[in-house]
Amino acid sequence: MQAVTKASGVKFGREHTRYVNSPKSSIKTANLMAWMQDKQANKQLALLNALQTAHFIDGNPFHNKHDFNDIVEQFKLSPNNKVFRDELTTDAEFILEGIAEIQQVIATTRFPALIMTVNDNAIFIDHSKYLKTPQEVVTAVEQEIAAIKQAQN
Fold first, then answer.
1. Structurally, how many domains does the chain consist of?
2. What is the DSSP letter of 123?
3. Which residue, 88, 106, 124, sits at the end of a domain?
4. Which of 7, 32, 43, 125 is deepest in the core (most CB within 10 A)?
5. H helices of the chain, where?
6. Are residues 20 and 94 in the same domain?
């Protein structure tokens, strides 16, 4: 956690820090995100941000269905009970398989990574290099797009 804080400048909440070494599982969160992709994909980023704040700042462990109540109410969601099981749903497994395929194609399991496509060209940006200066990701993407356009001319 200290390495992440040093590399990114991100501040973790006291409750998260206090229990950082306790066992954790993101299965229910992965299931909720997979469910959300199917039901309300336009709200996924907002949901992800809320989940990250609740976990890393407020210290919510997301161990059981009750831990998700505030988020579910905030976003007016009605996920089915399969989301809160201790095993991945079929939807979540399908998404993880897709991620694994992409990781194989780009030959990395590093995260975070940004993949964009411009026509038939793919751009891979390892934005972990830009954690302290996130605006530089935009510059890197612009440079990649300019290089693709130049190569097409």
1. 2
2. E
3. 106
4. 32
5. 2-8, 14-18, 27-39, 44-52, 69-74, 90-106, 135-152
6. yes
**Dihedral pair phi/psi, residue 72, rounded to 5°:** -60, -45
CA distances from residue 128 to 11, 46, 83, 110 in whole angstroms, order as listed: 16, 21, 30, 8
Q: Would you place residue 112 in the very low, low, confident or very high pLDDT band (cuts 50, 70, 90)?
A: low
Q: Which residue range forms the structural domain that includes residue 117?
A: 110-153
Both 81 and 58 in one domain: the answer is yes
Instruction: Report how many helices (DSSP H) and strands (DSSP E) the chain contains, helices first.
Output: 7, 2
Please, is 12 exposed, middle or buried when counting C-beta atoms within 10 Å of its C-beta (0-12, 13-18, 19+)? Answer: middle
What global pTM score does this model have?
0.74
Are the beta carbons of 33 and 47 closer than 8 angstroms?
A: yes
- The answer to whether 57 touches 10, Cβ cutoff 8 Å, is no
For residue 89, pLDDT over 90 is answered with yes
Chain centroid to Cα 150, Å, comes to 32
CA gap 14, 57 in Å, rounded: 7
Instruction: Answer yes or no: are the C-beta atoms of 138 and 121 closer than 8 Å.
Output: no
List Cα–Cα distances, 70 to 31, 77, 92, 139, in angstroms: 17, 10, 22, 37
